[in-house]
Design brief:
alpha+beta, disordered N terminus, three-stranded mixed beta sheet, about 130 residues, Histidine-containing Protein, Chain: A, 3 strands
């Protein structure tokens, strides 16, 4: 009981200068200004009824197989985490790629993998290279 109480006192002493956490701002890195996360434009784009989202993925086996085949190739390739997590949606044989990638090379690589599986005319790329 005594050890537990001392632990609480030590934790309180360490945090005595802590203020409230502000979740509206990112934690600054030394020498940089905090940047508020803002994906408003992406949310507006995805709210557009014409924009494909993962919910649009068909559940027929052919479309599932196309998506799975492209996903496997992307994951098996050495790329950034964002590139490996791009959205891949197949609907009636037409593949839509969406999401951020780190470089133009990653964008081209993912598009080529999708073209190899689904064919060039069946792939719509909405991949975005992050600044």
């Amino acid at each position: 009981m005594r050890v537990w109480t001392l632990g609480l006192i030590a934790a309180a002493a360490l945090c005595s200068g802590c203020g409230p956490v502000n979740s509206d701002r990112a934690v600054p890195v030394a020498g940089t200004e905090p940047v508020a996360p803002d994906n408003t434009a992406v949310n507006k784009r995805d709210a557009d009824s014409a924009a494909k989202t993962p919910i649009d993925q068909n559940e027929n086996q052919a479309d599932i197989d196309v998506t799975a085949n492209i996903r496997k190739r992307v994951v098996d390739t050495e790329m950034s985490v964002n590139a490996q997590n791009v959205k891949i949606m197949t609907q009636d044989g037409k593949v839509t790629l969406r999401g951020p990638v780190a470089t133009q090379e990653e964008k081209a690589q993912i598009e080529k993998l999708a073209h190899d599986v689904a064919g060039v005319p069946n792939v719509v790329s909405e991949l975005e290279v992050q600044p």
